[in-house]
Amino acid sequence: MEKLFVLIAEDDADDRFLLQNAFEEMGYTDKLEFVENGVELMDFLQNNSNNSNSVPGFILLDLNMPKKDGREVLKELKQHEDYKTIPVVVFSTTKNETEVKRCYELGANTYVVKPVSYDSLLKFVENIRSYWFNVATIPM
């Protein structure tokens, strides 16, 4: 199984722990890099821009984070020449239709409401990973 790289922006420590466990429990050995807010996400990308191994296969992006929220980051990513082709999966508790629409208008590739059960989270990890790494064709 190919090892992949996923950048996860999530301010909640419990959610980070559950995501880490879900990837491991599904048998994935992917490199997961966690950042806690939008400022850290942009800093990570800029500090690693010369390393082709540090370009994520996709970004899992929480919306409600301190310092710079997911909406601001999404807009910035999709306007940046080097980052605009990185798939962004918004991963939020927000189900508001207006919010979902706004994220797609800002350039989100997918919007997923966070699962409420761990079994659902496992299925999400399997599906989203499979889609972005096995099904979708992404420009490099």
TrEMBL record:
<dbReference type="InterPro" id="IPR011006">
    <property type="entry name" value="CheY-like_superfamily"/>
</dbReference>
<dbReference type="InterPro" id="IPR001789">
    <property type="entry name" value="Sig_transdc_resp-reg_receiver"/>
</dbReference>
<protein>
    <submittedName>
        <fullName>Response regulator</fullName>
    </submittedName>
</protein>
<dbReference type="Pfam" id="PF00072">
    <property type="entry name" value="Response_reg"/>
</dbReference>
<keyword id="KW-0597">Phosphoprotein</keyword>
<dbReference type="InterPro" id="IPR052893">
    <property type="entry name" value="TCS_response_regulator"/>
</dbReference>
<feature type="domain" description="Response regulatory">
    <location>
        <begin position="5"/>
        <end position="129"/>
    </location>
</feature>
<feature type="modified residue" description="4-aspartylphosphate">
    <location>
        <position position="62"/>
    </location>
</feature>
